[in-house]
Amino acid sequence: MTHIIVVGNEKGGSGKSTTAMHIATALARMGQAVAALDLDLRQKSMARYLANRAEAQSAEGVPLPCPTYVPLPEPREDEPADDRLSRALEGIAPGTDFVVIDCPGSHTSLSQVAHTMADTLVTPLNDSFVDFDLLAKVDRDGKVRGPSIYSEMVWNARQARSRAGLPPIDWIVVRNRLGAQKMLNKAKMEQAVGELGRRIGFRAASGFSERVVFRELFPRGLTLLDLRDVGAARLNVSNISARNELRDLMRTLQLPGVEIRV
Predict the structure, then answer these.
(1) Domain total for the chain?
(2) Alpha carbon of 134 to those of 93, 107, 129: distances in Å?
(3) pTM for the full model?
(4) Matching PANTHER family, A to Z (predicted)?
(5) Among 32, 66, 250, 251, which is disulfide-ready with 27 (CB 3.0 to 4.6 Å)?
(6) Where residue 244 sits, what CATH number does that domain have?
């Protein structure tokens, strides 16, 4: 069966589209058949990323492994979000191994439905308590006092899957924009994320550090895995470290039938 990966977070600027694109491309490079949906109807960052990638292939003359973009169909009159998203999934080619769904940085009915469909939920989170507030309420010392609105939405999605007899969501919270130095805030964030994960049932993972390269990749439609293909004979230390971060993330996801070869 097709495995659905939803990349969701109701706060913008957490690196959702970058994370979604790198996961989808890594899977494609490992020989998996991958489809991609973008539910952000305003910014369409992942759709634009994939369009940039198509242009890059033409300009560079190099074939780049790529997920198949599946556009969201136009809504029918009074059509509920679950029907519209189901129609999109029906358009996915038979034999597709994975579908990666990039959600908007806000609460929408489409995003809520996508969460109930997730086999794996990836929530990128900037490594700060400003963003952590999306997941939990904390006191002045950074101690967790209870789940916040997004965590409650994921809980509702889990309950809906349980009632439908579906397997539970494997939820991974990915800490992005990690600082290189061992700062007090970083240590407190690690403790708070770990505590909350044990309380409400997610796994914590380290994502991508703050790097200039990600700002350069998007307009070119490239990922960290493409640099050698487009003529970067030697990768600098930052590029190699970023590739290692992606490899570690793919291992942490523990996706079925995937042998890590990136």
Answers:
(1) 1
(2) 35, 12, 9
(3) 0.93
(4) COBQ_COBB_MIND_PARA NUCLEOTIDE BINDING DOMAIN-CONTAINING PROTEIN, P-LOOP CONTAINING NUCLEOSIDE TRIPHOSPHATE HYDROLASE
(5) 32
(6) 3.40.50.300
